[in-house]
Amino acid sequence: MAQINNYGYEKIRQYILSSWNYIEVQDTTGIALKRFGIADGLEVTGNATTQEIEYKLVITGDSTFLNQTVGKSVLLEVATNGSPIATEIY
Q1: What ranges in the chain are assigned the alpha helix state H?
Q2: What are phi and psi of 84, to 5 degrees?
Q3: What pairs with residue 87 in β-bridges?
Q4: Which residues pair with 34 in a beta bridge?
């Protein structure tokens, strides 16, 4: 069995940084409230040589969230539909 070397991990991180650029905010039951991308203010920090990649989203003044409880956020690689890559439950 082969082991991935440092260069291989850098290539994986480069792919993540360039492709996994959408966060969908959902209510507590998993119903999508809104999906955000880089153009909507989603910030993705990190680089191919660091082990941590951070996603930051600040939502202000959006009427979509009036009387809503945010229960989770889901990381995706596409603007619509798609399968979740990671889910953060609050």
Answers
A1: 6-19
A2: -60, 140
A3: 74
A4: 25
In the block, which residue shows the tokens 């619509």?
80
Query: Is 13 in contact with 6 (CB distance < 8 Å)?
Result: no
Tell me the backbone φ, ψ of residue 44, rounded to 5 degrees: -120, 120
| Per-residue pLDDT at 61 exceeds 90 | no
pLDDT value for 64? 86
CA distance 78 to 19: 8
Our CA dihedral for 64, 70, 74, 76, rounded to 10 degrees, sits at 10
Residue spans of the domains in the chain: they are: 6-89
Strand partners, 48: none
pLDDT digits (tens, 9 = 90+) for 25-36: 999 999 999 999
